[in-house]
């Protein structure tokens, strides 16, 4: 292996440490405790795990965690009313609605009912527009975590060729906007891209956000490139049981890349750390205080 393995777990612990320091200052100097409300609808097991983990880490950094759990058959009206109450609650600085929502609920309507200033996931159409026009916004947590790791590893990203595989609203598109904001030359690839291997081979930075286990082999990677693997895929092990793999073939990619994030232990931990950081940012903005850098 030639690649440096980017330790997302350690980096996320550092980010959480800084968040905890900021929270302690907000409490001692201003008597304010940032609060994050998480709304979970239904019994999706993966969502339940994420929500539990978010709640635990929120409390660990000294913030207040509010959980609102609803049965899968909650009406849209009732859900919108809950969000309206959270929007008006001064103790709640961040609101996150765990996706996906059950089919009968209009996801866009629900997300766009969140006060954009409390939209710590950065999915509200106002935040999407602000990000796209290079203005101060709430930035989606997963791409923000990827950007932080890239900046930490490279310093400046200016002029680098970046390929983002995947064009979802929650990862691919905002990731591309962030890389563009850092002056990369950005290509967004997707399921209709022709010669994906050729496109990826040009890249100094590859961000894979597809959801297909180990789709990207090492011979697609330009020697020395940085590979950020967003994918989280559960696959069966030959000996029974399951394991998590990314969208990239770790061993073959690590053999040619300059740096690579592992799965697990790469992008995943950074996502929740960025959620906590966004909540502190939202709290500071709401109170007219200096934001964490
Ligand atoms: P989506 O399913 O919303 O998007 C997947 C994207 O991949 C689509 O744009 C799709 O293209 C593209 N795609 C599918 N097949 C191919 C292919 N053969 N070649 C090229 N592109 C392809 O997924 P998400 O963006 O929500 O998530 C992507 C992955 O990241 C998942 O594994 C998910 O679990 C993980 N994830 C991890 C997070 C973390 O914290 N680490 C957070 C969020 C997601 P098209 O648009 O043409 O269909």
From TrEMBL:
UniProt pathway: One-carbon metabolism; tetrahydrofolate interconversion
Keyword Oxidoreductase in record: yes
Catalysis performed (reactions): (6R)-5,10-methenyltetrahydrofolate + H2O = (6R)-10-formyltetrahydrofolate + H(+); (6R)-5,10-methylene-5,6,7,8-tetrahydrofolate + NADP(+) = (6R)-5,10-methenyltetrahydrofolate + NADPH
Residues covered by the Tetrahydrofolate dehydrogenase/cyclohydrolase catalytic domain: 6-121
Chain residues that bind NADP(+): 166-168, 232
EC number annotated for this UniProt entry: 1.5.1.5, 3.5.4.9
Keywords, ordered alphabetically: Amino-acid biosynthesis, Histidine biosynthesis, Hydrolase, Methionine biosynthesis, Multifunctional enzyme, NADP, One-carbon metabolism, Oxidoreductase, Purine biosynthesis
GO molecular function, one term: methylenetetrahydrofolate dehydrogenase (NADP+) activity
Xref: InterPro entries: THF_DH/CycHdrlase, THF_DH/CycHdrlase_cat_dom, THF_DH/CycHdrlase_CS, THF_DH/CycHdrlase_NAD-bd_dom
Presence of the UniProt keyword Oxidoreductase in the record: yes
Domain Tetrahydrofolate dehydrogenase/cyclohydrolase NAD(P)-binding: start-end pairs: 140-285
Regions annotated as coiled coil: none
NCBIfam families: PRK10792.1, PRK14186.1, PRK14188.1
General function of this protein: Catalyzes the oxidation of 5,10-methylenetetrahydrofolate to 5,10-methenyltetrahydrofolate and then the hydrolysis of 5,10-methenyltetrahydrofolate to 10-formyltetrahydrofolate.
Family membership: Belongs to the tetrahydrofolate dehydrogenase/cyclohydrolase family.
Quaternary structure and partners: Homodimer.
This protein's name: Bifunctional protein FolD
């Amino acid at each position: 292996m030639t690649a440096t393995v980017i330790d997302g777990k350690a980096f996320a612990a550092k980010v959480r440490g800084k968040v905890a320091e900021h929270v302690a200052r907000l409490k001692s100097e201003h008597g304010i405790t940032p609060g994050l409300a998480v709304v979970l609808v239904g019994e999706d097991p993966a969502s339940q795990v994420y929500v539990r983990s978010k709640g635990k880490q929120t409390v660990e950094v000294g913030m207040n965690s509010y959980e609102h759990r609803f049965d899968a058959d909650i009406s849209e009206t009732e859900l919108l009313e809950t969000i309206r109450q959270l929007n008006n609650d001064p103790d709640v600085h961040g609101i996150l609605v765990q996706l996906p929502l059950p089919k009968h609920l209009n996801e866009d309507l629900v997300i766009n009912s969140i006060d954009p200033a409390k939209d710590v996931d950065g999915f509200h159409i106002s935040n999407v527009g602000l990000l796209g026009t290079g203005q101060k916004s709430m930035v989606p947590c997963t791409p923000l975590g990827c950007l932080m790791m890239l900046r930490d590893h490279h310093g400046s990203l200016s002029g680098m060729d970046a390929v983002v595989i995947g064009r979802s609203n929650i990862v691919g598109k905002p990731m591309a906007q962030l890389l563009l904001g850092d002056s990369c030359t950005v290509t967004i690839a997707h399921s209709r891209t022709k010669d994906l291997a050729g496109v990826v081979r040009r890249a100094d930075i590859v961000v894979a956000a597809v959801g297909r286990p180990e789709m990207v082999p090492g011979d697609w990677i330009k020697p020395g490139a940085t590979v950020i693997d967003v994918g989280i895929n559960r696959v069966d092990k030959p000996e029974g049981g399951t394991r998590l793999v990314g969208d990239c073939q770790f061993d073959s990619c690590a053999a040619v890349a300059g740096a690579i994030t592992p799965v697990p232990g790469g992008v995943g931990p950074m996502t929740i750390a960025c959620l906590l950081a966004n909540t502190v940012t939202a709290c500071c903005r709401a109170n007219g205080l200096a934001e964490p850098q």
